[in-house]
Amino acid sequence: EVQLVESGGGLVQPGGSLRLSCAASGFIFSSYEMNWVRQAPGKGLEWVSYIDGSGSTMYYADSVRARFTISRDNAKNSLYLQMNSLRAEDTAVYFCARLYEQVMGVWGKGTTVTVSS
Amino acid sequence: DIQMTQSPSTLSASVGDRVTITCRASQSISSWLAWYQQKPGKAPKLLIYKASTLQSGVPSRFSGSGSGTEFTLTISGLQPDDFATYYCQQCSSFWTFGQGTKVEIK
């Protein structure tokens, strides 16, 4: 079964850091581009970051560029999001999603990040 | 950046109704448009991609149309399981979602 499971969310103070993980199973992880998408409480979906299958090309939304870093370890079938200089507006559920033909066909259940003092 | 605008924001309908949601892109995206369904506390689910291609396993009452800047999602014969929030997403230049359309029970 194709599955994505996020972890690493929690409560962090403004200015703090957090590292999210996404464990993939049921497919050849290295063959797929991956994304992080977030959803603030009661709000819509916002694309956050992209990484290609080899981990050599990354893109970021303007709202997180220079603060967040996406990476992957294909040997461990894992995707990561390092989040630094966190702000209250980064509070959201963070989803990892598998990309195929430019669309996000497989999603994890999400992990919740709360930035608050 | 490409902006996506959905209408309406909320739609009240009854079981069996035909429902149409509209999505407009701020510039042409050809057919690089997807539709997702999301229920409270759950991850989004891909329904349609490339504007009109039905994702495997999605009921045929869902259909999509359009190209360029105007797109529609139609649900023909609304079912109880269809009450949810629907998002369009452009994937022509990075990825941008519409603000969502909540389909609620009338």
Protein architecture, described:
The complex is a heterodimer of chains A (117) and B (106). Chain A has 117 residues and is an all-beta fold. In chain A, 0% of the residues lie in helices and 55% in strands. Chain A has strands spanning 3-7, 10-12, 18-25, 33-39, 45-51, 58-60, 68-73, 78-83, 92-100, 103-107, 111-115. In chain A, strands 2, 4, 5, 6, 9, 10 and 11 form a 7-stranded mixed beta sheet that branches. In chain A, strands 1-3-8-7 form a 4-stranded antiparallel beta sheet, with no helix packed on it. Chain B has strands spanning 4-7, 10-13, 18-25, 33-38, 45-49, 53-54, 62-67, 70-76, 85-90, 96-97, 101-105. The radius of gyration of chain B is 13 Å and the shape is globular. The interface between A and B is medium-sized, with 20 and 23 residues.
Describe the structure concisely for a colleague.
The complex is a heterodimer of chains A (117) and B (106). Chain A contains no helices and eleven strands.
| Shape label of chain A | globular
Q: N-to-C SSE series of chain A?
A: EEEEEEEEEEE
The class by helix and strand makeup of chain A works out as mainly beta
Question: Helix count of chain A, per DSSP?
Answer: 0
Uncertain ranges of chain B: none
The percent of residues in helical segments of chain B reads under 10%
Overall form of chain B: globular
The sequence of SSEs of chain B as H and E is EEEEEEEEEEE
- The percent range for strand residues of chain A is over 45%
Q: What's the gyration radius of chain B in Å?
A: 13 Å
- What oligomeric assembly is this protein in? heterodimer
Structural class of chain B: mainly beta
Q: Pair with the most extensive interface?
A: A-B, 20 and 23 residues
Quick one: how many beta strands of chain B? 11
Give the percentage of residues in beta strands of chain B. over 45%
User: How many strands, which pairing sense, and closed or not: the largest β-sheet of chain A?
Assistant: 7 strands, mixed
- Contiguous low-pLDDT stretches of chain A (5 residues minimum) are none
Rg over alpha carbons of chain A: 13 Å
End-to-end separation of chain A: 40 Å
Give the end-to-end Cα distance of chain B, rounded to a whole number of Å: 36 Å
